[in-house]
Amino acid sequence: MIKTSLLAAFAIILVLCAMDSAAQSSYETITVSNGGTITGTVKWSGPVPKLAPVAINKDAEVCDPQGQKKRNLERLVISDNGGVANTVVFLKDIHKGKEMDLPETRQFLNQKTCRYEPHVLLVPDKGTLHLKSSDPVLHTVHMSGASDYNLPFPFANQTVSRTMNREGIVDLRCNAGHVWMNAEMMVVPHPYFVVTDEDGSFKLTDVPAGEYEIEAWHEGWKVTGQGAVYDVMTQMRVQRPVFSDPMEWTKKVSVPANGVVDVKFTISDRRPEMAASR
């Protein structure tokens, strides 16, 4: 009886694993004929929030070579024309299309003057993230969310690579006392993801003709409090900013064969569901 129950339980586990594997591999790569293009912008509406910078209180000779004494957290970057940079725009309900072609620059993280470059990363599911430190001070890249690596960088120009094995959002922070350092990464199942440039512009190419839901995802810009963490170098407790949740805006889009469709997102401090209807 016990043996039968164990076999039944094992069979259920196999089925669940197979279902999970099928879900993760639901995107099918095909040759896209007569594909369309989605262009667009993400713009800010209303007063721009005043976001307080964080004091650079450690390793100033490396982290603050220009003597500014403070560092912008880079959580909300708005251009003179109102464009919002670092917004991830993607198709939510696409199941087949072109092969993965995400920019390599979004799959390589550098730590330079105690900031992360780029601020938003895009890595394919089961893809490789490359990480480097250009700084001659200790950094640790601590990941939480869809990945949980904690990688030390004690030397300048050290490079490591890690495979991202689970889709989702990953927060990146430094546990070596540089509390202002922050970045976000999306581990994604298909290539129809893009990060807006400094003017808030984006483009998705080779999209199979059809009806889709398109989303603009922003990491969130408000500091909601402080969290206590240990500086691994000094073993002292330090306070690190805690940020508000990401915000999402969605629209419907119809992509014509060989055509171009323009999508404009307007975001603000208003609730996303209100902004999405604009």
Topology, element by element:
Blueprint: H1 2-24, E1 28-29, E2 36-44, E3 54-55, H2 60-63, E4 70-71, E5 88-91, E6 96-97, E7 108-112, E8 115-117, E9 120-124, E10 128-133, E11 139-145, E12 150-153, E13 158-163, E14 168-174, E15 182-188, E16 193-195, E17 201-207, E18 210-218, E19 223-230, E20 237-243, E21 247-255, E22 260-267, H3 272-276
Parallel strand pairs: 1-6, 2-22, 7-10, 9-15
Antiparallel strand pairs: 2-17, 3-4, 5-16, 5-18, 7-8, 10-13, 11-12, 11-14, 14-15, 18-21, 19-20
- The total count of helices amounts to 3
Low-confidence stretches: 1-24, 274-278
Secondary-structure arrangement, i.e. CATH architecture: Sandwich
The percent of residues in helical segments reads 10-25%
Radius of gyration: 21 Å
Strand content: 35-45%
What is the CA-CA span between the terminal residues?
62 Å
Specify the biggest β-sheet.
5 strands, mixed
Please state the average pLDDT score: 90
How are the strands of the largest sheet arranged? 9-15-14-11-12
Provide the number of structural domains.
Answer: 1
Output the CATH homologous superfamily. Cupredoxins -  blue copper proteins
> Globular, elongated, flat, extended or rod-shaped: what is the shape?
globular
